[in-house]
Amino acid sequence: MNGAQSLLRTLVDAGVEVCFTNPGTSEMHFVAALDSVPDLRGVLGLAEGVVTGAADGYGRIAGKPAATLLHLGPGLGNGLANLHNARRACTPVVNVVGDHATYHKQYDAPLESDIEAVAGSLNGWVRRSGHPADVGADAAAAVAASMDAPGRIATLILPADVSWGDGGVAVAPVPPRGPRSTSDATLDAVADVLRSGEPAALLIGGDACRERELLATSRIANATGARALVETFPARLERGAGLPAIDRLGYLAEQAAYQLDGVKHLILAGARSPVTFFAYPDKPSDLVPEGAQVHTLSDREHDVAAALEAVAERVAADVEPTLAPSQPPAVPSGGLTPQNWVEVIGALLPEGAIIADEANTSGLLLPAATANSPRHDVLTLTGGAIGQGMPVATGAAIAAPNRPVINLEADGSAMYTLSALWTQAREGLDVTTVILNNNAYAILRMEMQRVGADLSGPTAKALLDLSSPGMDFVKMSEGMGVPASRATTCEELAEQFARAVAKPGPHLIDATVPPLL
Amino acid sequence: MNGAQSLLRTLVDAGVEVCFTNPGTSEMHFVAALDSVPDLRGVLGLAEGVVTGAADGYGRIAGKPAATLLHLGPGLGNGLANLHNARRACTPVVNVVGDHATYHKQYDAPLESDIEAVAGSLNGWVRRSGHPADVGADAAAAVAASMDAPGRIATLILPADVSWGDGGVAVAPVPPRGPRSTSDATLDAVADVLRSGEPAALLIGGDACRERELLATSRIANATGARALVETFPARLERGAGLPAIDRLGYLAEQAAYQLDGVKHLILAGARSPVTFFAYPDKPSDLVPEGAQVHTLSDREHDVAAALEAVAERVAADVEPTLAPSQPPAVPSGGLTPQNWVEVIGALLPEGAIIADEANTSGLLLPAATANSPRHDVLTLTGGAIGQGMPVATGAAIAAPNRPVINLEADGSAMYTLSALWTQAREGLDVTTVILNNNAYAILRMEMQRVGADLSGPTAKALLDLSSPGMDFVKMSEGMGVPASRATTCEELAEQFARAVAKPGPHLIDATVPPLL
Fold first, then answer.
1. Do the Cβ atoms of A451 and B120 come within 8 Å?
2. ipTM exceeding cut-off 0.95 for this assembly
3. CA B8: distance to chain centroid?
4. Which residue numbers delimit the Thiamine pyrophosphate enzyme TPP-binding domain (chains A, B) (predicted)?
5. Is the bond leading into A329 cis (omega within 30 degrees of zero)?
6. Given A355, B11, B85, B450, which is the most exposed site by the fewest CB atoms within 10 A?
7. What are phi and psi of A489, to 5 degrees?
């Protein structure tokens, strides 16, 4: 067994089922080994941002890591933005980064690169395998490291000769470090705060925004009057009919300030203390209201659901949660606007959907329009590095082949990792992509005003404008093998969306939606 | 004047004319400042790999840096692969990477990232501006650092509040460190070696493969019998009718070994001692023939042209160079093959063309087919990180608006940075792209055999196959505003290529060429 074979065998034994790959020469023995370890499914991406973003989407849905296969420092670099998003989501990911053979590194060949420096920027786990006999143990450690609560990026650097050399040994899985428990003292203290009668807010986040956490949060809110909120960009949020509808904290600081106004106690459960996404001149970065006390019930390393349920037991033993009714909006009519397209989605969202939401400004009204639609998951742009939605949708569809995946995607963001469509076509994934095509970096138009920059000049205006030339996503999609159509009215979007969702395999709708601003 | 304005003013004063941008919120004051400093041309790319690759192509042709504008660590990460290629080319590039405001960093907001670690992996120059009053001096230092012989990547990190804060001061250019001179002792020693009668080879490289270096090298070779060679992947190679035709060292080790067989003295001028691109089991990485002595006439920090001319003066005072005749091949006929498509290009290459060559396996026969075509420049894949050709062509066209740019591009490589087409359309650049569409990662098929990996399994085979679904580059190109056509025969390619070259603005030809292997 060579190093690569022992790596694959160990990954599979530890429960890894998928490897998203964009390999080069140094990774050829890994690729060859896939035929001897058929339980690991190799999924090809045409660019590394697709590979790493797909691993993020996969991990958020599967709750365990996919592997990636990347080519030296440049390959890891190309994948870095979506690894950044995965890091912020605490998604478990195991990167395998091929490197030159150990004896080749001294020659500083053209692809020689500082892989450790790039991987190290992710604040995760990094190791370099030195010998084929070590690869199995290194792989088992990598999987465990990625799964240590709450989850992180593990990067294993695999020199070519360590991959092809004999002496590999498959190693049994290493148990990851599970979540910590919240102490009774903390539970009691938080319960006391909630019972105090002073205005309180309970902010949940991360992937602790699922059925158990939502139910407990709603019960606590109903019993104590505390405001319940979800952080702005949760890794995975369950919502829809039959679940408590809990608003997300607004992206705009003004909105968040309004939601938290008057709060004296802010209780964090799986969420971090809220700050603005960017700094804005003469505005505070910290969103905690002045004079409010912050209480951490549980951070991301804790068992958040257990903590919330224990608090609910203390303060809301006999109180029921409030569940959203099943009451999707009607399909609107007329030309598409930022206000009405979301209602088309809300009206027609299929049961059990996974929404990969990178609609940005076009999607500001989406949460309201889908709150009473059938139950679904939402995966958000956790790290703010755009170009994430299409790969995340791709990975989510691999993780949940029986669930419809809906990718709501801004035009500017789509262009970073558009070739995810090709992977969707190749793998026959059930992804419906709706491009919100407003011919602009609309988010930057909004931000430019907010940071006090002057956007009146023609050059600045032009650099936020994507209309010259306009992009035809129908053609681009068809060019990568994904059937596509164009919608300019609600009726067209409704008809095309319903048809796309009903038919297996990927589809794309290029929806012409004017900018919100 | 705010920090951003002082930055732009200083860049322009130092000769920087172009900034390739993919900005985010932290960079909005830089974007706004472009209207107050109109001499800096902002060119928008839809992904960072386009931005950094364009800066590489621009710098290789212009001989001075373009700036890039990137958004925090993820933006720099997305651009890292093409910065790696630029680093290997010793292209001067000035990255401006926006960061959170200084007081915002403590909050670890979603986009907080380790920019220094990522930038540091490039072994260039990195500085963080701390105050608006320092930005001008930092920018002047960055430009100088990028231009220090032989050229490198300079990265200036610009916090948002340093950008928007008042007190900026434009600073006069700082003279970069020029090339070193080769000592007379070295010149004499190399001349002695060349006169010794022992078999010698003279290897030139970097961007020291232009008229002066080629003429001197040819004279030396003619006078002494030394073999003249260009390194495998030079940053910029001038060639064609009227210039000495000097072969490049082969990519395949077997070919390079043949070219260097029997050599006792290997003289390096702007080239590094040759090594294989990758390690191959049981084959040496070092391509210097056993027992041969390596003599460095000049490394990349030297004035290579002056050194070669001084040697020519010593050993070839009255000897003429051999110049390639003007003798382009005839246009062949019939279905396209890896053998004949290059002759179509050779037959119709316009005078003064710049070729961005990322044709990979499909282009192995290109040099022979264009050796007697009109004079042209070739820009190659210096760092081996694919996805470079389309951005490099884009940047070259910005640097040389009056020269036809020809991008010969493998299908797999094209998919990393395809949105360069949109920038070409937006800017009306005169780039003719020929996609060599063989539906495969053909280079990996070749490499898989060469590294001794078993490619007989169906999974391994499938992961190197791009035919399912096949990619329609005509549609993708039209979707980004670049007119496109498909060619399957030499006649079609010739007709379409001649038409594309004759007409201003970008064009793409999707050429169906079967794999070489």
1. no
2. yes
3. 25
4. 372-510
5. no
6. B450
7. -125, 165
Question: Tell me: the pLDDT tens digits for B59-112?
Answer: 999 999 999 999 999 999 999 999 999 999 999 999 999 999 999 999 999 999
Across the interface, do A161 and B36 touch by the CB < 8 Å criterion? no
The arithmetic mean of pLDDT across residues A137-157, rounded, is: 98
CA distances from A137 to A11, A26, A119, A190, B251 (A): 10, 21, 20, 42, 36
3-state DSSP call for residue A507? strand
Tokens of A197: 């009668």
Is the model's pLDDT at A111 over the cut of 80? yes
Q: Is residue A312 within 8 Å of residue A468, measured between CB atoms?
A: no
CB atoms within 10 A of CB A333: 11
The residue type at B300: R
Residues of A in contact with B480 (CB under 8 A): 469, 471-472, 476
Structure tokens at A433: 């992509």
Taking each helix axis from N to C end, the angle separating A389-399 and A420-427, rounded to the nearest 10 degrees, works out to: 20
Q: Touching check for B470 and chain A: CB below 8 Å? A: yes
Query: Of A392, A389, A402, A397, which is closest to residue A425 (Cα–Cα)?
Result: A397
The pLDDT of residue A455: 75
Sheet with strand A18-21: strands edge to edge = A41-44, A18-21, A66-71, A93-99, A153-159, A125-128
- Which of 248-287 (B) contact A at CB < 8 A? 272, 275-279, 281, 285-286
Complete domains list, chain A, with CATH: 3-164 (3.40.50.970), 184-315 (3.40.50.1220), 341-512 (3.40.50.970)
Question: In angstroms, rounded to a whole number, what is the distance separating the alpha carbons of residues A31 and B462?
Answer: 10
Find, among A117, A481, A452, the residue nearest to B32 by Cα.
A452
| Chain B contacts in chain A segment 365-424 (CB below 8 A) | 382-385, 387, 412, 415-416, 418-419, 422
CA-based end-to-end distance of chain B: 60
Structure tokens at B110: 């979603």
Interface test with B, best of A50, A70, A76, A80 (most B CBs within 10 A): A80
Pairing of strands B353-358, A353-358: unpaired
pLDDT of residue A427: 98
b/e A202-234 (16+ beta carbons within 10 angstroms → b): bbbbbbbbbeebbbbbbbbbbbbebbbbbbbbb
Q: Which of A88, A418, A481 lies at the smallest CB-CB distance from B469? A: A481
pLDDT tens, A206-242? 989 999 999 999 999 999 999 999 999 999 999 999 9
Task: Select from B355, B345, B341 the least CA-distant residue to B403.
Answer: B355
- Looking at CA atoms only, how far is residue A347 from chain B in angstroms? 30
Contacts of B35 in chain A (CB under 8 A): 454, 456-460
User: Residue B320 burial by CB count (10 A; 0-12/13-18/19+): exposed, middle or buried?
Assistant: exposed
- Whether A121 has its CB under 8 Å from any CB of chain B: the answer is yes
How far is it, in rounded angstroms, from Cα B35 to Cα B29?
10
Are the C-beta atoms of residues A382 and A374 closer than 8 Å to each other?
A: no
Nearest CB to A113; choose among B28, B84, B103: B84
What's the start-to-end Cα distance of chain A, in Å? 60
The token duo for B215 is 């003429």
CB-based contact, B467 to chain A, within 8 Å: no
Of B109, B419, B458, the CB nearest to A415: B419
Q: Are strands A125-128 and A153-159 parallel, antiparallel or unpaired?
A: parallel
Residue B401's DSSP bridge partners are: none
Encode pLDDT of B121-131 as tens digits.
999 999 999 99
Give the pLDDT confidence of B180-225 residue by residue, as tens digits: 999 999 999 999 999 999 999 999 999 899 999 999 999 999 999 9
| CA separation for the pair B394, B392 (Å, rounded) | 5
Residue in chain B closest to A161 (alpha carbons) equals B281
